[in-house]
Each structure stands twice: as structure tokens, then as C-alpha cells.
Amino acid sequence: MGGEVGSFLLVWVSAVALLCYCHKIGQLTHGGTTRLLAILPVVCIFLVMPLGILSLSVRGLTSFFLCWLATFKLLLFVFDQGPLSSNPPLSLPRFVAFACFPIKIQQDPAPTVSPHDQELVHVDDNQDVEKLVNAEDRDTPSQKIAPKGLKSHLNYALKFLLLVIFGCIYTKEDYFHPKFILFLYVIHIYIALELILAMFGALARACLGVELEPQFEEPYLASSLQDFWGKRWNLMVTKILHPTVYSPIRSTFSRWIAKKWASLPAVMGTFLVSGLMHELIFLHIGRQKPKWEVTCFFLLHGFCLAIEIGIKREIKGTWGLPRVVAAPLVVGFVVVTAMWLFMPTVVRCKIDAEARMETIAFINFVKGVYIYLKDVFINHNDHKF
Q1: Domain assignment present for 262
Q2: Where are the bilayer-spanning segments (predicted)?
């Protein structure tokens, strides 16, 4: 335990020190080559820092925060773009928090269609598609969110209760089909990730005093792949991939093909980068050579999303599946493909086993506390009478 805490502190104290250095570089230089040369070594260090952490789950979260979020935000910062660039400049605490955590200040009023989706459908010269997406939003309102960008406590409590139920099932997993347990792991990953990111968001909101956007928007209600990936799933990643990957690729391809079709290779490029970053995270977690199944998962979804966008442009909103039909199809497709291409890497890296052990350990801890309190209460009543 001491070694795990020590490795965690060493990595994160070093990361904060490097971000303080980047903040100072931002004060001394303008965006461009000089800032790039000064910050690029930090980006390279961040890519290997998670390997110094012993705990598997903490190593995975650190990889996500530093290798993906922090590096991409720093690359935007190099060119005076992204959440780290503002006028006036961010204070040091906010710079560090915004750099390495999945948080974004909530903008009021929120747009009906996210910037990511506006780019994906290319509303510049295809107003019919814009109407289609806006109509979809009106017909399928998002889950209501509590003020300050966080969902209600009941929402999180119910999801936490689901994890407890899953833990009880894991203790009897020999009685269930392996595919059913694998399905539970898919749901487990989503719920655990949302709860963990929500806790970081709540902590950042309390410390920084700012309103933050939610990281997830009930992805199981998605009516299309575009709705799922663009407006509901891991929104902080969506918002960071858009300026770093999607927009540059779309701008480049717009020189050679029609602008309304340039978004399709941009979608594929974005999902390719997402897949590669997931491979890097799993490399840190499992310390095994990648087999590229996760990349195939994201390329498959990128290809299907590109087809979906193309079809939307062609039919121009004249036909569409009702949400009651579309939502199960979308979620079913995501879950089935995740079990096929995503989960084998999760199992190989033993993430599922650790999640199962942690959940069961928590349940046993709660049981122990309950038994202890019950014994104390009974003994107290015996002495009283």
C-alpha cells in the first residue's frame, strides 16, 4: 500500500510541477514555434508518466487524464487555442485543473446543437440537415440535468445501486452465462466511469467555484450514433477531439472535395485517433502489446457514423426511425460491438477482474460496517434494559 501511494504522489506531484512550468511558459511566450519547443518535452513526459503508478485502476485514470486530456489541451495551448487559452489568462490553479481533469466551464445558454454535431452535419450549405438535427433534438429532449451541470443525486444513487447489484451477481458468477457477465462488465464500465468523472467534476466545482458541463448525457437514450458519440458519450473527449483532430482534417480535405463531404474523412480520422489513444491507455494499464481490437472498434463506429451522416444528407429529414425503435438499436449495436471488439482487451488487461474485486470488497466492507453497527445497537439496548 505504501508503494502504491508513493508512486501515485510522485507521478502527480511531478505532473502538477510540469503544468506550473507550462503556465509560466504561456506567460513568457506567444503561441507558435517557441511555445511548441518549450512544451513538447512535457507532452512527451506525460505519455510515459502513468507507467510509474503501481495500482492498475489508478494507472488507467492517470493515463486518461495526462496522456489524453492534458496532452491534447497543451497542444491546443501551444497555438493559443482550447480551454487553457483565455483572455485574461487563467490563474495557476484553474490552469492545472482544466489541463488534466475532464472539466469544462458551462456556457449559458447552452446551444440546441453542440458545435461538434454542427460540424459533423456541415450546416453551412445544407440547411435541410440542420433542420433534421434540430428536429431530432426537439423530439428527443435530453435527460434533465440538475443545476450547475450535474445530474440529480437520485440519478447517481440509482447507478451506484446498480454497481452494488452487479457486485452481488459477481459473487455468484458461476451460475450465469459468461456472455451475460461480459454484458454486465460493459454496463459496469460505463457507470463506473460516469460516477468517477462526476466526482472529479463535483470536486473541481467546489474548489474552483465555476459551473461545469456534465461529462455524460444518458447515452442509453441516444437515437443515433451521431447522437451517442456527439452529444451523450464522454463529452469532454468529444470537445477536445473536435478542435485537435476533426477540424484540421475537415479543413484539409475541404481543399480537394466538397465541404459537405469533407466531414466524412474527418469523422474517420477522429475515431482513428480515439482508438489509438484508447490503445495507449490499455498499454499503460496492462503493459502488453496492443492487438488493435480497440482501434477496430472505433474505426467500425467511425465508418458506420460516416454512413449515417451521408444518409441523413441524402434523405434530408424525409424519413427516420421513431426514438422508441432507434434507441434500442443504437444501444444494442454499441453493446454488441463493445463485447466483440472492446471487451477482449479489457479482459486481457484484467480490468474486469479488478473492477469485480473492488466491487465485492466494497460490498463486504458495507456488510461489515452494518454487522458492527447492529451489534453495537443490540448491546446498547441490552445494557439499557
Answers
A1: yes
A2: 32-54, 61-79, 153-170, 182-204, 261-282, 323-342
User: How many structural domains does the chain have?
Assistant: 2
The dihedral region occupied by 308, where left means phi > 0, alpha psi between -120 and 50, and beta the remainder, is alpha
pLDDT, residue 261, reads 84
**Domain of residue 67, residue span:** 1-101
328 — alpha (psi -120 to 50), left (phi > 0) or beta? alpha
Residues of the chain below pLDDT 50: 109-148
Q: Which long-range contacts (CB under 8 A, 24 or more apart) does 232-238 make?
A: 232/142, 234/102, 234/193, 236/69, 236/102, 236/103, 236/104, 236/197, 237/68, 237/69, 237/102, 237/274, 238/114, 238/116
Q: Is residue 16 part of a domain?
A: yes
The whole-number pLDDT of residue 45 equals 95
C-alpha cell belonging to residue 249: 482534417
pTM of the model: 0.81
Rounded to a whole number of angstroms, the CA Rg of the chain reads 23
Nine-digit cell string for 248: 484540421
Q: Is 22 helix (H, G, I), strand (E, B) or coil?
A: helix
Q: Is 105 helix (H, G, I), strand (E, B) or coil?
A: strand
Q: Say whether both 160 and 279 belong to one domain.
A: yes
CB half-sphere exposure, 307, CA atoms < 13 A: 5
pLDDT of residue 273: 96
Q: Do 91 and 164 belong together in one domain?
A: no
